[in-house]
Write a structure and sequence with these properties.
Chain lengths: 287, 418
């Protein structure tokens, strides 16, 4: 072997092997494709509202109508207490937070199935897809959040006893946790659905059921003692509770349970990325 | 100095049949239960037999121990029948799926064009799609911006860049998509059959673009069933057969080996009602001896005998002559000579002879297809059933060097000076 061939072999920019190690995750490559992620976000946003009259107003209409329905059904007919907070504010706060989680989870859980045609034709880091979904949902979350703030200001001006606390500073962190949880669950499910489509059906109503296991339509204080452990095991509970406390100023932040959510998110994301990373290399053979 | 940029080292790709992904959990459970009880798998497709190299019932090697390497600036044509493993090879290289064993070493950025317009979104405008598609193919926003005008120019849809692509005609759509891909500047470009779309002018443009890509020192891998395009574009070729690398070498050797293999393997394609059926046919010289070679300018005969199952008023008889790229070169019919084949009795064996005069096709290999039928339909049609070669000789044209391969017919000429 002469020198030039020796030198060549050191210069391979890429070696495609049957199996790469479980922990070989190429985040640098993902960063190289950041333009692609922004293009996907832009695409989602533009495509969603083409040929609609109300356009981005739909971001607001959806939580508004849901809130009204909750006020009627849970607040007035079922008479579930809201910790002395105006029902509209109470429900809307929960819904805006929960919506972000559920859209992230629902949308990312179909990453492989929905994009099989693109994934089958061209390579880019597959994680770009779910990440772009989480970011474009973040855009709608921010719009809904601003809308929620308007309501909050209105109620404060009206003299209602709600006041955002210093915990508001935690909100970016909470949003990050919600995104992480949604993404983590989503990519795990999307990895499993390459083999079993059953999970697609499970996830659509599973997320709805999950909402009822999270203090969205009822306050934490209204939960009987024997169920409390279960509700607290739900990693979304501390997040939603802190979110409400921060904005509405009721209750106290339980930092210990928030830490639990954080740890849960980190582990979930790590596991999710590992599984996703393993599946993405050969999913085209099974999907 | 040439430099190896792609190296396949004993690359294999195995697919599992039946075992993976029945798609739903219940099917998998069914299968599991059936297996436990020793019954046949209820979800396996009936009649799945694979021509590919079968190791045991459930495994198929789409590629088997393929090794080759490619230098920069080379254009490699990948040739093979359907199912030979061409697409699998490109998929592995473009990282859509991973190899089962072996490894592929690559130097430089790869862009794969397994399809034009991957990821185009119908609601987005042409401009937005250029950016989206470019990003999907691996370009950064800045690269796309700097080439935007060029891309729009090349595509020829500049008037419509702000229109959603769903309003485009399919031709405009494809042109725009190809324009984006053509302006990628990867070190390695992978192209799969994209030239099959678009009109002749577009195909010419596309081939031209690919030639200029390779001239600028970049490497191209090209898969196509269009052997003419492959020969035009590629310098080197590999022939795949049942997942294995059969041959590697200069492109003309590869394509001719492929043509030869495909004729030998194929059974004669025959169609028609068989109301009148060909029984015998042969190619002979003027002395009636069977031949498979003709010199330029020579006259040859085709004799055929056929019989009718029922009394038939009349039939026509034609000869189609195709070259080895399956291009239709010549056509002869009984009507050319106002000759009629009439009043065929039941079971009567009719024998006819056609004399084809002064052969003037370029030297090479040709195939004759025989057709019997009339204006109501085809009685019997046997495709490419006679193979023969035309030799140059010195009778028709006297040049002492071989006839130019690109020309299809030979013209005789007389030369003089004043």
């Amino acid at each position: 072997m002469n020198q030039s061939t020796l030198r060549e072999q050191e210069n391979w920019s890429m070696v495609l092997k049957p199996k790469k190690s479980l922990f070989e995750i190429n985040l640098a490559e993902l960063w190289q494709y950041r333009d692609l992620i922004t293009m996907f976000v832009k695409r989602d946003f533009v495509a969603k509202f083409k040929q609609t009259i109300l356009g981005p107003l739909w971001f607001i209409i959806q939580p508004l109508l849901t809130t009204l329905m909750f006020v009627v059904v849970f607040g007035n007919i079922a008479g579930i207490p809201t910790d002395g907070i105006p029902q509209v504010l109470f429900y809307m706060t929960g819904i805006v937070g929960w919506n972000y989680f559920s859209t992230c989870l629902n949308d990312t859980s179909q990453t492989f199935i929905k994009n099989a045609s693109i994934f089958g034709k061209v390579y880019f880091p597959r994680l770009a897809m779910p990440i772009s979904i989480v970011i474009s949902n973040l855009v709608s979350f921010v719009i809904q959040f601003v809308f929620l703030l308007l309501f909050l200001v209105y109620f404060i001006l009206k003299g209602t006893d709600v006041m955002p606390g210093i915990e508001v500073l935690l909100i970016p962190f909470l949003v990050l946790l919600i995104a992480g949880l949604g993404l983590g669950f989503g990519i795990i499910i999307s990895s499993l659905t390459t083999k079993y489509r059953d999970l697609v059906h499970l996830i659509t109503f599973g997320v709805t059921l999950w909402m009822y296991a999270t203090p969205i339509i009822y306050p934490m204080s209204g939960i009987p003692e024997k169920y409390r452990g279960w509700v607290m095991a739900n990693p979304m509970t501390p997040i939603v509770e802190t979110f409400k406390t921060a904005l509405l100023g009721v209750g106290e932040v339980n930092y210990l349970s928030l830490l639990y959510s954080f740890a849960f998110t980190v582990v979930l994301l790590a596991v999710g990325i590992l599984i996703f990373n393993k599946v993405e290399r050969t999913f085209m053979d099974t999907v | 100095m040439s430099n190896t940029v792609i190296k396949f080292e004993d690359v294999s790709k195995q697919y599992r049949l039946g075992v993976v992904g029945t798609g739903t959990l219940s099917h998998d459970l069914n299968r599991f239960i059936a297996k436990v009880r020793g019954k046949e798998d209820p979800t396996r497709k009936v009649g799945v037999s694979n021509r590919l190299d079968v190791k045991d019932g459930n495994y198929v090697w789409a590629l088997r121990d393929v090794s080759f390497s490619l230098n920069d600036g080379e254009v490699l044509g990948v040739v093979g029948k359907n199912g030979a493993g061409k697409s699998t090879l490109l998929k592995l290289l473009s990282r859509v799926t991973a190899p089962t064993t072996g490894q592929i070493k690559v130097k430089g950025r790869i862009a794969s064009l397994l399809e034009v317009g991957t990821g185009f979104h119908p609601e987005l405008t042409g401009k937005e799609n250029i950016f989206l598609n470019g990003a999907i193919l691996g370009m950064t926003k800045r690269e796309i911006k700097s080439k935007f005008d060029e891309i729009v120019d090349f595509s020829g849809v500049s008037k419509y860049v702000d229109t959603p692509v769903k309003r485009y005609s399919s031709g405009m759509y494809v042109r725009l998509a190809f324009a984006v891909a053509a302006h990628l500047e990867p070190e390695i470009l992978i192209v799969d059959e994209v030239l099959a779309v678009g009109d002749a002018e577009f195909q010419k443009k596309a081939i031209g673009k690919m030639q200029s890509v390779s001239k600028s020192g970049r490497t191209v891998l090209f898969v196509s069933h269009n052997l003419t395009a492959v020969e035009q574009l590629c310098s080197k070729g590999i022939l795949l057969q049942n997942g294995m690398l059969k041959m590697e070498g200069p492109i003309h050797d590869i394509t001719s080996a492929y043509k030869k293999a495909s004729v030998n393997e194929n059974e004669l394609k025959r169609s028609g009602t068989r109301l009148v059926e060909l029984k015998n046919y042969a190619m002979t010289n003027l002395l009636g001896q069977a031949i498979d070679e003709v010199f330029l300018g020579e006259t040859f005969r085709v004799t055929a005998s056929f019989s009718a199952k029922e009394t038939t008023d009349y039939t026509d008889f034609t000869l189609d002559i195709r070259n080895d790229s399956n291009e239709f070169i010549g056509h002869v019919t009984n009507a050319d000579d106002l000759f009629e084949i009439k009043n065929l009795e039941k079971d009567e064996l009719r024998k006819i002879t056609v004399e084809v005069k002064d052969m003037s096709f370029a030297p090479g290999t040709y195939y004759i297809s025989l057709w019997l039928g009339n204006k109501y339909g085809t009685f019997d049609y046997i495709e490419n059933c006679i193979r023969f070669t035309i030799k140059q000789g010195d009778f028709f044209i006297k040049r002492p060097f071989p006839f130019d391969k690109r020309a299809k017919t030979v013209l005789r000429s007389n030369w003089s000076t004043d």
